[in-house]
Design goal:
Layout: H1 4-53, H2 57-104, H3 110-154, H4 158-161
């Protein structure tokens, strides 16, 4: 017959596994968010160089709008990253409180509360990252539209090119 103490320890370890899986998922999202933030920062730096080199008022207005969009994207990613760090803390706290409840008792609801807070933080950060991804696609679409419009603006009409 198995030792009851051993069974209790296995139950504790099993209960600590779910937060570990959430930790892994959260770490993956955090890695993705950090990579996205790096791309946004690189794009913003390129746009600031373009702004410094461009004297056309219409082009400068477009570039300034693009910089503002990159600033919005960076803020969304920052908030999402902060929430992911909160989620990691909650999931670690969940594991610790499961063990603490087993040894100390009186923490009966704390693991559940921490787990729920962690999942809510993860959900909210995912929504923010989804919003940022939508802005990224919108930024690319605007840049393509602006490049197309600029190409037409700079191109001479065929009649002028023929000398007529």
């Amino acid at each position: 017959m198995p030792n009851p103490v051993s069974l209790g320890q296995y139950a504790i370890l099993t209960a600590m596994l779910a937060p570990a899986f959430f930790l892994t998922a959260t770490a993956g999202l955090l890695t993705s968010a950090n990579a996205r933030l790096a791309r946004v920062i690189d794009r913003a730096r390129n746009l600031m160089r373009e702004l410094a080199d461009n004297q056309d008022p219409e082009d400068r207005k477009i570039i300034e709008a693009r910089i503002a969009l990159q600033r919005t994207r960076s803020r969304l990613i920052l908030r999402a990253s902060q929430l992911l760090y909160v989620a990691i803390s909650c999931f670690v706290g969940t594991s610790l409180s499961v063990a603490g409840d087993a040894f100390l008792g009186h923490l009966q609801h704390l693991p559940t509360v921490l787990a729920v807070l962690g999942v809510l933080a993860m959900l909210t950060s995912s929504v923010l990252l989804a919003r940022e991804a939508s802005l990224a696609v919108a930024a690319v679409n605007h840049e393509m539209d602006d490049a197309h419009a600029r190409a037409h603006r700079l191109r001479r009409p065929p009649a002028e090119a023929a000398g007529g």
